[in-house]
Each structure stands twice: as C-alpha cells, then as structure tokens.
Design brief:
Distance between the termini: 25 Å
Number of strands: 5
Strand order of the largest sheet: 3-4-5
Number of domains: 1
Order of helices and strands: EEHHHEHEE
Number of helices: 4
Structural class: alpha/beta
Shape: globular
Radius of gyration: 14 Å
Strand content: 15-25%
C-alpha cells in the first residue's frame, strides 16, 4: 500500500508513505510509458507520483495480480495497464482478471 504526500488515503493498513527519494527511484519516462501503452497521458505531478508508486508495487511484488479489462492490443485498460506492462518487463508472473470475460489470464 504505497502512497505519497497529498494523495487521498483510503486504506491505512500496511501504508508506506514514499518520500521524495523513494518516489524518484520509481521515476519513468512518461514518453516511454505512452509509447509502450499506445496512449496519451497528462504530465502532472500527481500522475507522475502515481506511476512512481506503481513502480514500487511491481518491483516489490513476487507475483502481480490485477483486475481490469484486457484490450485488443493485450494491454490492460486504465491505470492498471502500466502496472501490468511493467510486470511483464520485469518478468514477474502476471495474473489479470478480465471483468468483461469473467476469467483469469496469465502472462508467462
């Protein structure tokens, strides 16, 4: 449960407030993410911090489980998509529950 200062916190259990140095470790090129995902993103500090927290979730996970919709280009819709793509890049076992297909899918 990673977060950053100024982000709305819903869940307190297991909360890890990332400091500036930790956030910077998870910094990724917005241009790279947009190209990889074939999407456009806003370049706002909040969005960058969200990408940085996703980086920490994936790096520190052994297996990655996400819920969303698998699109035709085999990416996952929404913000969850970057986490799923980054898990693939890190060769982490990735499991996606596709809500439209009501089933689990695994990437090897």
């Amino acid at each position: 449960n990673y977060t950053f200062e100024g982000h709305q916190i819903v869940r307190q259990r297991g909360l890890h407030m990332l400091n500036r140095e930790e956030l910077n470790r998870g910094d990724v090129s917005l241009e790279y993410v947009a190209k990889l995902m074939s999407r456009r993103y806003t370049d706002s500090p909040t969005f960058r911090h969200i990408l940085q927290t996703i980086w920490h979730q994936i790096i520190n996970g052994q297996e990655i489980f996400v819920i969303g919709e698998i699109l035709d280009d085999l990416t996952v819709k929404g913000g969850t998509g970057w986490g799923a793509e980054f898990a693939k890049l890190c060769n982490k076992p990735l499991y996606v529950f596709d809500q439209n297909k009501a089933g689990w899918f695994k990437w090897n």
